């Protein structure tokens, strides 16, 4: 079948280029044209095919111009309605004609009806099998797609990528059988079975897809392990010992364990690629400081990069506090520095005089060249774009010794990644988890309060402040307009200053100059401000352990991960903390679920799991904007068992059957490797 260039473009838009693409362009659903049902049994909601006589047909003009017909058989009647129609359609339903009608039944005012049914003459042969309905795009009809796919089925290579013994072991049907069954379901298979995706044919396809993903991640990992990184082995442990002595607390067992994991990686000659996960307040910063001290003691430079200036600055405070007295030369680099300070910073970085560099995105600008970058620590790495992350790891390649040495990378995240997701998307990332909070913490109590009762909060705030504690008041997100959001923050600050007379009420928001912001945060940290009105600039990482009450206005507008992060700003000391979620009725169903999740649990992993359920993996990972689909067929929520099997087999194949790996990746992964590796 020759295709026009317009059709060509549409096919490309669907990602259909080669026969291999067509054969895995699988149906979304099926239509059952294999049987006729009596008209009287057609129920609203059902997709049916019936035959009957046209009893009546007219073009009605009110309430709008439309074609209406009625068909009937011995068992009942059914209305047909066309809101737009061609004369040819009108001709198909002349009174007395025997017709075959297909479509979805709905409850109309005059009994059951089908809107825009498909109509043909009665009596034709019934379809022998279910009719597939493919994902398509405007202007590309189902029959065209079907023909092209059928043609591809004849020419494409359907041979199996997996040997028989492996298929038997995992209970998988042959690939060709699975593909044929999905495009042309055998007579004994119901549409419902195929829709559920539990059918053996679907299981095979899902397994193949997950296996390809695991294999490609493992390949990426092998590639990383073949790269060189600086071997960071300090001559002595003086710096680390001195740092431990300066800490006002002992590390938890979990912190000690992850420190060991990270330091072991740094002493290997290939780049570390490790994710440090820990719930809000679990104490990741000190782990980063120890890793940095280790690398510095081994003579390398370390860069710590945070997504916001407030957070970067807080890291700077802590690093300077812990490491400067030990003689570590730390440099601060952000976009808001004056040209001269910036030049000085760049110079210190270039000369190697700066041992530790803390900053924001400014760190990855072209002009900054490191003398000897050995370790990059990225806080909340998922907030940086993929491009920014790559740019930073390229920095290390500018080192003087050789241009192929890649720095080690430690990513810190307070957003726990559920297990299945970690297994599928971060298989090239080693994960360290701090699964224990520092001793003495009490669970934050979460309260849901309708906005109409906000006046009740004044007394609570007063009581907290009287106890010497501090309070955050988070202003609502106003997505449409940043200006409006700012205005809300300013207004709230003014109102609270009046209501909370006698208390020091501060304000911090994203539009303030960095120096002003830093001043407010300093004042809050030092207790000179008791109530801090803030926009979400405080969302990640801000650490003021004396704060014990957080109020979040219009909590229904925030995402679940964001609410958990915000709530994590309290409960960081030993005092009992409270988080009040103010909400405005009416709540949407999803907002209600989010608030309920916040009320029911403070466990970051549980929150992440529910967030994943509510948002789906694409949005959860923030990869949606990349336009690439993560998984087309398998689902992380329902196919966890398959993920595990695929992972097990991937390891086996990589070790013993490289040809099978090549064959399998050849079928499934053309052009997709890059995406999976980000
Ligand atoms: N082992 C420990 N014992 C007592 N306190 C600790 C310990 N480790 C860290 N802390 C303190 O706990 C607080 C939280 O630590 P940190 O800021 O590193 O948390 P975090 O994991 O970065 O959390 P978030 O993701 O919320 O920023 C800090 O005040 C820190 O000084």
UniProtKB/TrEMBL annotation:
> What EC designation does it have?
5.6.2.4
Known catalytic reactions:
ATP + H2O = ADP + phosphate + H(+); Couples ATP hydrolysis with the unwinding of duplex DNA by translocating in the 3'-5' direction
Looking at the record, the residues that make up the Helicase C-terminal domain are 440-613
- Domain spans labelled Helicase ATP-binding: 265-434
- Pfam (any one): RecG_wedge
* An example Gene Ontology molecular-function term: DNA binding
- Tell me the keywords, alphabetical order: ATP-binding, DNA damage, DNA recombination, DNA repair, DNA-binding, Helicase, Hydrolase, Isomerase, Nucleotide-binding
- Known InterPro entries for this protein? ATP-dep_DNA_helicase_RecG, DEAD/DEAH_box_helicase_dom, Helicase_ATP-bd, Helicase_C-like, NA-bd_OB-fold, P-loop_NTPase, RecG/Mfd, RecG_dom3_C
**Could you tell me the Gene Ontology terms of the biological process aspect for this record?**
DNA recombination; DNA repair
Q: Which domain of life is it from?
A: Bacteria
Top enzyme class, one word, equals isomerase
Quote the SMART domains the UniProt record gives. Answer: DEXDc, HELICc
- Matches recorded under CDD domains: DEXHc_RecG (cd17992), RecG_wedge_OBF (cd04488)
> Signal peptide location in the record?
none
Give the protein's function. Answer: Plays a critical role in recombination and DNA repair. Helps process Holliday junction intermediates to mature products by catalyzing branch migration. Has replication fork regression activity, unwinds stalled or blocked replication forks to make a HJ that can be resolved. Has a DNA unwinding activity characteristic of a DNA helicase with 3'-5' polarity.
Report the sequence similarity comment from the record: Belongs to the helicase family. RecG subfamily.
Its protein name is ATP-dependent DNA helicase RecG
The species is: Pusillimonas minor
Q: Which gene is the coding source of this polypeptide chain?
A: recG
């Amino acid at each position: 079948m020759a295709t026009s260039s317009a059709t060509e473009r549409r096919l490309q838009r669907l990602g259909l280029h080669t026969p291999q693409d067509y054969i895995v362009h699988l149906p979304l659903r099926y239509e059952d044209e294999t049987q006729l049902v009596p008209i009287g049994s057609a129920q609203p909601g059902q997709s049916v095919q019936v035959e009957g006589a046209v009893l009546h047909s007219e073009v009605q003009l009110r309430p709008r111009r439309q074609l209406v017909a009625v068909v009937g058989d011995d068992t009942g009647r059914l209305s047909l309605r066309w809101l737009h129609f061609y004369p040819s359609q009108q001709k198909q339903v002349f009174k007395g004609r025997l017709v075959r009608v297909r479509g979805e039944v709905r409850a109309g005012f005059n009994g059951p009806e089908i809107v825009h049914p498909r109509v043909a003459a009665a009596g034709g042969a019934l379809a022998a099998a279910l009719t597939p309905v493919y994902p398509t795009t405007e202007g590309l009809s189902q029959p065209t797609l079907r023909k092209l796919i059928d043609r591809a089925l004849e020419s494409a290579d359907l041979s199996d990528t997996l040997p028989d013994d492996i298929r038997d072991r995992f209970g998988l049907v042959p690939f060709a059988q699975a593909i044929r069954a999905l495009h042309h379901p055998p007579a004994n298979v119901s549409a419902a079975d195929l829709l559920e995706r539990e059918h053996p044919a679907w299981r095979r396809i899902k397994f193949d897809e997950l296996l390809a993903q695991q294999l490609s991640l493992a390949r990426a990992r092998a590639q990383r392990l073949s790269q060189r990184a600086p071997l960071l082995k300090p001559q002595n442990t003086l710096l680390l010992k001195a740092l431990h002595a300066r800490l006002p607390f002992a590390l938890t067992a979990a912190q000690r364990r992850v420190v060991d994991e990270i330091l072991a990686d740094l002493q290997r000659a290939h780049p570390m690629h490790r994710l440090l996960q820990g719930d809000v307040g679990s104490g990741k910063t000190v782990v980063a400081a120890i890793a940095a001290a280790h690398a510095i003691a081994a003579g390398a430079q370390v860069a710590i990069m945070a997504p916001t200036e407030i957070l970067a600055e807080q890291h700077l405070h802590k690093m300077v506090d812990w490491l400067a007295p030990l003689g570590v030369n730390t440099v601060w680099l952000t976009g808001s520095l004056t040209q001269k300070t910036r030049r000085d910073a760049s110079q210190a970085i270039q000369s190697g005089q700066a041992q530790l560099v803390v900053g924001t995105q400014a760190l990855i600008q072209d002009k900054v060249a490191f003398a000897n970058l050995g370790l990059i620590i990225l806080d909340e790495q998922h907030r940086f774009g993929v491009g920014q992350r790559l740019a930073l790891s390229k920095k290390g390649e500018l080192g003087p010794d050789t241009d192929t040495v890649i720095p080690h990378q430690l990513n810190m995240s307070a957003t726990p990644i559920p297990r299945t997701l970690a297994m599928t998307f971060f298989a090239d990332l080693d994960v360290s988890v701090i699964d224990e909070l520092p001793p003495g913490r009490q669970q934050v109590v979460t309260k849901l309060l309708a906005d109409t009762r906000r006046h009740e909060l004044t007394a609570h705030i007063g009581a907290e402040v009287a106890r010497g504690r501090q309070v955050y008041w988070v202003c609502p997100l106003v997505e449409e307009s940043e200006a409006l959001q700012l205005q809300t923050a300013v207004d709230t600050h003014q109102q609270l200053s009046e209501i909370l007379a006698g208390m020091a009420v501060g304000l911090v928001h994203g539009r303030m100059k960095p120096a002003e912001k830093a001043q407010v945060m300093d004042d809050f940290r030092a207790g000179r401000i008791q109530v801090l009105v803030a926009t979400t600039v405080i969302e990640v990482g801000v650490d003021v352990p004396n704060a014990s009450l957080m109020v979040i206005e219009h909590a229904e507008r925030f995402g679940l991960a964001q609410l958990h992060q915000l709530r994590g700003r309290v409960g960081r000391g030993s005092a009992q903390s409270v988080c009040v979620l103010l909400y405005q009725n009416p709540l949407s169903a999803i907002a209600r679920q989010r608030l309920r999740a916040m009320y029911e649990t403070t466990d970051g992993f549980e929150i992440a799991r529910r967030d994943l359920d509510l948002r789906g993996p694409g949005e959860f990972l923030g990869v949606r904007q990349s336009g690439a689909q993560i998984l087309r067929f398998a689902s992380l929520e329902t196919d966890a068992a398959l993920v595990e099997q695929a992972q097990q087999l991937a390891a086996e194949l990589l070790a013993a059957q490289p040809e099978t790996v090549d064959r399998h990746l050849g079928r499934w992964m053309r052009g997709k490797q890059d995406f999976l590796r980000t």
